Amino acid sequence: MNSVPRLWKELSESSDFVCSEHQTNTASLFIGYFNSVTDPKILHQHILGCLSKEPDISFDELYHLIPVAEKEISSDWDVIQNKILRGNVAILNGDQSHHCILVNAAAFKGRKVTVPEIEFTVEGPKEAFVESLDINLNLIRKRVPVPELRIKELTVGSISKSRVAICYIKGIANEQYVNTCIQRLEDVQFDQITDTTLLQQMIEDNSNSFFPQTIGTERPDYVAWALSSGQICVLKDGAPTVIFAPVNLGQFFVTFEDYYLPWIIGSILRVIRMVSVMFSVFASPIYVAVMTYHAQGISNVFLPTVVSSRINVPFPPVVEVLIMELVIELIREAGARLPTKIGQTIGIVGGIVLGTAAVEASLTSNLLLIIVSISALASFATPVFRMSVTIRLLRFPFIFAAQLWGILGIFICTIAMVAHLLRLQSLGMPYLVPFYPFRTPDLYDTVIRPPYSKYHHRLSFIRPQKPVRFDRKNANKKRDIDE
């Protein structure tokens, strides 16, 4: 298929491809389009309407007369094929001609802009990205109305032909990170790209790692903040999630609602999330280690309670913990896969019934039930879903290590995890900055959320070309009108 007439014949084998002939006094025009992706209003009013009003119009005159901005004349059969498949109307000048007028008449069918469903917030804007790339770019442009905002569009996927856009602010984003992101997207070799989550796995530095190296969000305000910080964002047509990089480990425990709250409250919430993550990972393994090897470390005050809760349990601590952890994961997966109302009922009723029945049947102790329940709740405190899944699964290697070597096994597993994190990168940036390499000035927006007067410099580990946000000398000055 290396000519336009042969392409035309090939497309005619599809039942939703419409081909009609319009005879003028000077030419015979063939009009072809897919009615499943074409807007009938644009077709009849702007294209067929011009032909009916001007019976003596020529091929070249028709191009200038059609009142549609997105149009072109092409003889490249590959371009013509892609345009027609995306909703363009092709006007062929004769059945053996190789020149087509391509008029964009694509029909938009999809969700309207709604509130965020995953990253819901009480404070701040309520708009969320949708599955249309053009609408998502509009949401970004509306929040970043500067000429330095650059958008580079690529086509990825041999079958899906997915439109992928890379956004960054020229003069702020580091050119090395931009070029790395573009190169990795251009090197993607896959036939069907259905969502940005596939691109995440394909462009990350280490796709075999448990830990995600890019952050996905459905909030345009978060993307605008990331762009102004010097990060690069990737959007895909048909995906309601935008990913951005480079990122460090600390950003996975930051929710953008922190920036809408007073800085003291935002900082306290960040610390609570980090403590929750530590508890979620280490609580169950420490229980196994203490009950198996280090029972002498239990205080005499708590010893009778611990003994009475486990006196009738026939299983060793590791089996007891694994049973409860697997039951929690089973309830969580069942609740996530079922419809919303049924899933909530299954989660609540299943947790209460199974927990009570397990204790009464002496399959587990009251103490462990409390620990596992709090650990499950603590894992939900992580704002980014991919990182929360990582935290959930990370407990199991620690549990097995605690069973083998006790507290020493937990330390060994922790050292192995830290060694892996030290080697991890995001678009070539170290994953553990600003802790390693240690950068004191960048700690202010990782552990705590400082007041905005302290945001006079962008995070240095992102290596922005313009590190200064504003003049800090005038940041704390507050003048009244009578001064």
UniProtKB/TrEMBL annotation:
Top-level taxon:
Bacteria
Q: Does the keyword Transcription regulation apply?
A: no
Q: Which Pfam families match?
A: GerA (PF03323)
* Entry-linked InterPro entries: Spore_Ger, UPF0353/GerABKA_families
Q: Which parts of the chain span the membrane according to its record?
A: 271-293, 343-361, 367-386, 398-422
Q: Which family does it belong to?
A: Belongs to the GerABKA family.
Q: Which PANTHER family match?
A: LEUCINE ZIPPER PROTEIN 4 (PTHR22550:SF5), SPORE GERMINATION PROTEIN (PTHR22550)
This chain belongs to the protein called Spore germination protein
Q: Identify the species of origin.
A: Paenibacillus gansuensis
